[in-house]
Every structure is written in C-alpha cells, then in structure tokens.
C-alpha cells in the first residue's frame, strides 16, 4: 500500500473526558499524518465494547474498517436482542445488568461519540449491599476522595466493629495505597484474593458483605481470583480514584441507548458493520507481502490488518481454526485461556409491583448463590412502560461463579426462592414470563495467570488483540479494560501507518499522596 501523505493531522476531537478527579491521568494521542489516497484497511473481528472502540478509532482516522460480529446485535456481553413474551409484548432481553462507573473514562468517551452529554445514562442513587444475617451497607454517603473514602466506609459500615479493627493486621493491606501496573501483579498475582484478605484479618462480615461482592463481579470465587486483580479493583473503584462507587445505567435497553447509535456513527465514517457474520478463519495473505485473508459468511476478503476483539473463548476457537496465525508461543498462550465458571441471569416479568422502597439495584451475599437483584422498571424506559401498562414489575437476578455440576433447573428455582427471602412481597406475584441466560464466556483471572494472558500487540505488528481479558499496562478493569484495549489496539495499528492516535484517560496510576506511597513502600520492603 502507498504510504500516507506527509501532511500532519491532529487527532480527532473525540478524546474521553475525565470526571471529577483532578488527578486522573491523560495519555495524549500520538500525532500523525492524514491518510493518503490508498487508505489502509482493517478487519475488526468482534462487535463487543473492545471491537467497537477499535473500529471507531480506526474509522475516524480514515481507515477502511469492516466490523464482523457473529451475533445479530452489537455490544457483546452488554448487548441485547428482541424477544416476545407470553402476553404478546415484544421486549429486549440481555445478559443482565452492567454498572457504568464514572471511572470508565474511555468507555464513556466512546459513548460520547453519539451522546455528548451522556443523556442516555442515568445515575442510581445508591449502591446498597445486604447480607443474609441482616447486615447492610451503602456507599451513598461515603466520601469519594481517598483516603477519606476508605475511612468513611469503615466508620459508616456496621460490618466493622471496634474489636475487629483491633484484631486486623494493617501491614499486608498497605500495598493497596500505591497500586501500579504491572508491579501489583509481580507482588500479588501468586496470592488468591481470599488469602490476601485472610492475611489482613478483615472481619468476616465485612469480607462477605463488601469484598466478596466485589470479587464476584469478576465472575469468580475469591479463592480462585488473583489478589492482584482485587488490589487493582480497590485502586480503580475505591482507594485510587475520587470518582466514588456510585454509577450510571442506561435509560433504555442497550441497543437503543448505546449500540444502534454507534453503529450509525461507524457507517457515517464509511465503516461496514456486518452483524450475524461469524468469521471462520484468518490467515496471512499469500499473494501479498502484507495483510490477511478473512473468511466470513462464505466470503474471503483481504485486509492490511486485523483486530481480534473476541471474548477469550471465541479467540481461542478462532485461533485454533486459523493454523497459520501468529507464532507458536502466542498460539500456546491463547490456547491456555480458560473462562470463569458459568453464571446465570434470570429475568422475571411479574404481574404486580415490588415494594416501592426497593432500590433499582441491590448487591446480596449469603443468599444461596444470589449475587444481586435489579428492578429494571426503576430506570429502564422499556421495562417501565411494560410495568405501567400491566401493573407489574421487571426483576432480574444474577448468580455468578455457579458450580458447573449444579443442575440448571435447580439453580433457577433456587434464585426464585432467594428473591422471595429478600423481597417477600414477590411470593404472591404471578410470573407473566421468564427468561434464563446461562453463559460461560467471561474471562478467568486465576492466581498466577497474569504472565500467560495475551497482550494487545502480537508477534505480527499487523495483528492486535483487544478485550477485557487482555493484559494492559494501564489501571483498567472489566468494561473499561475492554474499551481501553480496543483503543490501544487501534493505536498500535495507527502508529504503524503514521496516522494520529486516540487520547486515553485512566484513574491515577499510583498512590494519591507521598505519605501513602511511602507507607506502601515500607510494607513492600518487609514482605517475605
């Protein structure tokens, strides 16, 4: 292909905007030239958050992009599709509730392409937690700026009693005051989240009510989760960021609020969006010195570069079918990827409302596998219209890290019984309809697994990887890691073509004050 014309061009004015935290970190976009007449081409395989971020950054800079998605909808695990209920209503089903935290600078920057004011998101007033023994916690009144956030949570939480605090060993917890990537993995990746909390001596009620709820958001039992991932999570959401733990949710189902507008945005930038089009294999092109042949929907096309933005299971499967892709060490690393245990989402359309004081979202612990309850009609317009028309309610239940040996029907019934324990008024409710979503494709972050995870860059500069399981040199996790690695994958390709890159934002990449950093260093010097 012809090299781009040597005219300098600023990066498009689409950088993510930081939130209230003045110490949020900005990584400026790399400058570059404008694309020449022979524009580079790229295939983005996977239409989830990572793939949408990569496709957006590339298309904005003049790259000819084709986005392949096997499902008929975009958004990946945050996607949605239509379904018809027994009462004749057509509604949108999804894989469940997602919290859009204010620390998700790059994801929110992606959404601002079509919604500059983020008007399609609405704030939930609290992040309440309840344990089966009656203890309750809330983040509504907890200060947002560290270290007052940690001190405020301890002071306000009933799960921290004075005698428990006296019994704690604070030294193992001090590294949380200065979390950096990748150092945190070198220090803590060989320890489980459970053992890390054991060493600190966190009181049992606090561990179950707060920290286990957070760790299970990674779809894994704390005994299987790397302590480094938990430490990074504490930094992002609590100890390193001043954005706080409250979050936003979409006002409408995911397709209408988020992904359909973004698909239109991509098409206006001359990208081709091909949903319902699984990719069979990817091979280095034989006829040209550079590029790949992508086979999808029975048709083969040539591209100068490829972004692999699938989930871990999908990536492993595609690479296994694409025998000439990558070198042996990289293929072995991909082949070793394993998903987290299965999870279940049960959505119930009930014939009567839940009690008016019930929150839109409630984290739960100790209720026989039930991890949270959402009352969708509290915030989602489609569910609210159905509830108003029928006098009912739309309730969603989540169970993470389910035992793969557990009978599915029994687990579904167990969630219903636990809902009746937490919200007793639902016992008398009739079920208009129900949907169960069983999935086993979330990434696993096992103890000692960091070094084996793929990175954005591969042995081939024209082949990059993005997703929430990908190793990143930035403090990001979950949906924000997906968006960030999508932009990083695009930046790697744009750099090779001499085109301007995408600005990135993150939470602070170290402890917030010199005193806290010194305390963390002191603890590190005494670690065995």
Task: Give a topology summary.
Blueprint: E1 8-9, E2 25-27, E3 32-33, E4 41-45, H1 49-60, E5 64-69, E6 80-84, E7 90-94, E8 100-101, H2 105-111, E9 121-123, E10 129-131, E11 136-137, H3 148-156, H4 162-167, H5 183-188, H6 193-200, H7 204-215, H8 227-239, E12 247-250, H9 254-268, E13 272-275, E14 279-284, E15 292-296, E16 299-303, E17 305-308, H10 312-321, H11 328-335, E18 343-350, E19 361-367, E20 370-375, H12 381-390, E21 393-399, H13 408-422, E22 431-439, E23 463-465, H14 478-497, E24 504-506, H15 514-525
Main beta-sheet strand count, sense and barrel state: 7 strands, mixed
Backbone CA Rg:
23 Å
Q: Helicity level, as a percent range? A: 25-40%
Mean pLDDT score: 89
Report low-confidence residues grouped into runs of 5 or more: 1-11
> What is the topology, as strand order, of the major beta sheet?
11-10-19-20-21-18-22
Number of DSSP-assigned strands: 24
SS summary, helix count: 15
What is the terminal-to-terminal distance? 55 Å
The proportion of residues in beta strands is 15-25%
Main structural class: alpha+beta
Q: What form results from the Cα inertia axes?
A: globular
How would you characterize the overall build of this protein?
- Helix 6 packs across helix 8 (227-239).
- The chain is 31% helix and 21% strand.
- Residues 1-11 have low confidence and may be disordered.
- The strands form 7 sheets. The protein has a 7-stranded mixed β-sheet. A 5-stranded parallel β-sheet has the order 13-5-4-17-23, covered by helices on one side.
- The protein is of the alpha+beta class.
- It has helices spanning 49-60, 105-111, 148-156, 162-167, 183-188, 193-200, 204-215, 227-239, 254-268, 312-321, 328-335, 381-390, 408-422, 478-497, 514-525; strands at 8-9, 25-27, 32-33, 41-45, 64-69, 80-84, 90-94, 100-101, 121-123, 129-131, 136-137, 247-250, 272-275, 279-284, 292-296, 299-303, 305-308, 343-350, 361-367, 370-375, 393-399, 431-439, 463-465, 504-506.
- A hairpin with a 7-residue loop joins strand 14 and strand 15.
- It contains 15 helices and 24 strands.
- The protein is globular.
């Amino acid at each position: 292909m012809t090299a781009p014309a040597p005219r300098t061009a600023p990066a498009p004015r689409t950088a993510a905007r930081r939130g209230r935290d003045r110490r949020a970190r900005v990584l400026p976009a790399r400058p570059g030239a404008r694309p020449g007449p022979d524009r580079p081409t790229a295939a983005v395989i996977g239409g989830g958050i990572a793939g949408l971020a990569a496709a957006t950054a590339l298309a904005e800079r003049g790259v000819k992009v084709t986005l392949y998605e096997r499902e008929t909808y975009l958004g990946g695990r945050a996607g949605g599709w239509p379904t018809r209920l027994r009462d004749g209503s057509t509604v949108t089903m999804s894989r469940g509730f997602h919290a859009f935290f204010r620390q998700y600078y790059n994801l929110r920057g992606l959404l601002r392409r079509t919604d500059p004011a983020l008007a399609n998101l609405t704030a939930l007033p609290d992040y309440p937690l309840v344990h089966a023994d009656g203890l309750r916690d809330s983040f509504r009144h907890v200060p947002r700026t560290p270290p007052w956030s940690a001190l405020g949570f301890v002071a306000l939480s009933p799960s921290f009693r004075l005698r428990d605090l006296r019994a704690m060993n604070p030294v193992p917890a001090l590294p949380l005051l200065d979390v950096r990537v990748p150092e945190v993995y070198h220090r803590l990746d060989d320890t489980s989240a459970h053992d890390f909390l054991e060493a600190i001596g966190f009181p049992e009620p606090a561990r179950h009510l707060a920290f286990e709820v957070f760790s299970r958001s990674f779809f894994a039992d704390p005994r299987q989760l790397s302590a480094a991932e938990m430490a990074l999570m504490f930094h992002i959401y609590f100890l390193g960021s001043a954005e706080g733990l409250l979050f936003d949710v979409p006002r409408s189902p995911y397709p209408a609020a988020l992904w359909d507008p973004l698909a239109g945005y991509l098409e206006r930038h001359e990208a081709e969006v091909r949903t319902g089009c699984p990719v069979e294999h990817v091979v280095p092109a034989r006829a040209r010195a550079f590029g790949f042949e992508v086979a999808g929907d029975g048709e083969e096309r040539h591209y100068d570069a490829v972004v692999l933005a699938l989930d871990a299971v999908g990536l492993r499967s595609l690479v296994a079918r694409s025998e000439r892709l990558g070198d042996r060490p990289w293929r072995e690393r991909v082949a070793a990827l394993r998903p987290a245990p299965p999870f279940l989402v049960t959505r119930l359309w009930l014939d009567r409302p839940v009690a008016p004081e019930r929150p839109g979202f409630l984290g739960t612990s100790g209720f026989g596998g039930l991890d949270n309850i959402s009352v969708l009609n509290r915030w989602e317009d489609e569910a609210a219209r159905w509830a108003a028309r029928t006098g009912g309610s739309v309730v969603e239940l989540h169970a993470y890290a389910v035992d793969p040996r557990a009978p599915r029907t029994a687990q579904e019934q167990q969630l219903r019984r636990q809902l009746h324990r937490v919200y007793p008024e639902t016992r008398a409710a009739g079920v208009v309809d129900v949907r169960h979503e069983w999935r086993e494709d979330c990434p696993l972050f096992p103890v000692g697994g960091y070094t084996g995870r793929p990175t954005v860059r591969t042995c081939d500069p024209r082949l990059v990887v993005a997703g929430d399981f990908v190793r990143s040199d930035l403090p990001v996790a979950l949906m924000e890691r997906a968006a960030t690695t999508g932009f990083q994958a695009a930046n790697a390709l744009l750099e090779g073509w001499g085109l301007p890159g995408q600005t990135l934002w993150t939470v602070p990449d170290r402890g917030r004050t010199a005193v806290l950093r010194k305390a963390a260093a002191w603890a590190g010097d005494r670690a065995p």
